[in-house]
Amino acid sequence: MPTLGDALLSRYPRFSLYNSPYPAHARGCAVDLYPDRDDDRAPSPVAGEVLEIHERRVPAKAYAEATDTVLLIAVDAESTPGLALPDDGAWVARVLHVDPTVAPGDRVDPGESLGRLVRSGFFAPWVANHVHLELRRRDANLLRAQGSPRLALGRDVTVDPVAWDGRGTVVETGGTYVRLDDPAHPGDGWAALAADDGAPLDGGLRHYAGGGRFGSSRGADANALPDGPVSLFGQRVGVAEGRDVRWGDVAVRLDGEPVTGLSLFVGRRELGAKVVVRDHDYAVGDAVTVDVVPTENPVRLG
User: Domain range spanning residue 62?
Assistant: First the structure.
């Protein structure tokens, strides 16, 4: 199983293995790496040689570009700090959501710009620009949307759990979301919103079919967790099989009104809840409360 260590992940302020309806994210087989918000460059997560670039048409969205690309990079693992690959053949990185300035035959190094980040038609409108990364053996079908193995977090990646009571203040608004100041980041290192049992959560609750969770003991295996129910704010929200979570029939509410959901991720310098809510009139400075309740009609976007 390919393993992502802190030296790779820490080049990005945020990451998520599960917060997407794209098939590769269903069991954490891909990771979305979010660069700084004010930077439109796409920093390469790996070192290696660009093999191929394939342009693909994507679903037409008013806020998105008409095409996306699949960059295939032959990975030089020895020159990629924070990446450990099984020693059973050559590996290729599949990188998406970039308008490339590199070409086949070019050598790239970690952090080097691959080109400009693009808003893909695969994105929901509340999704920020990011680099999508999968790792696949070179003898596999490199263009299929599915087929990459699960990604693991290295033992040097500790995700601190952050408890939250659901209350916060709006610090940013968009047409389809609001971002809150809570849960607050505890300081240095990786952190994520904690389930009631203390396991950090990842994914789109409940608008995507499933999400994930991580172990939080420093130096332990963040990928190894027991099966069982998952709850948040005292409400059962899903069932876990190891690291993977299948969300249940619940609704996220903002000030008592059902919304699309909570967008959960792992942050290094920032956290705060991102509440996906359409056609809202919230403003920066508004005090709000988030909770989760059972429903017979959960939002299902993917």
Answer: 3-153
Distances (CA, A) of 10 to 43, 126, 205, 223, 302: 12, 23, 25, 18, 29
Reference 238, options 214, 213, 275; nearest CA is 213
How far apart CA 177 and CA 278 sit, in angstroms, is 7
* Backbone conformation region of residue 229, classed left if phi is above 0, alpha if psi is from -120 to 50, else beta: beta
Cβ(68)–Cβ(121) below 8 Å: yes
| Residue pLDDT, tens place only, 176-229 | 999 999 999 998 899 999 999 999 999 999 999 999 999 987 777 878 889 999
Distance CA 116, CA 99 (A): 5
How much is the pTM? 0.94
Q: Of 131, 153, 175, which residue constitutes the final position of a domain?
A: 153
In contact, 270 and 185? CB cutoff 8 Å: yes
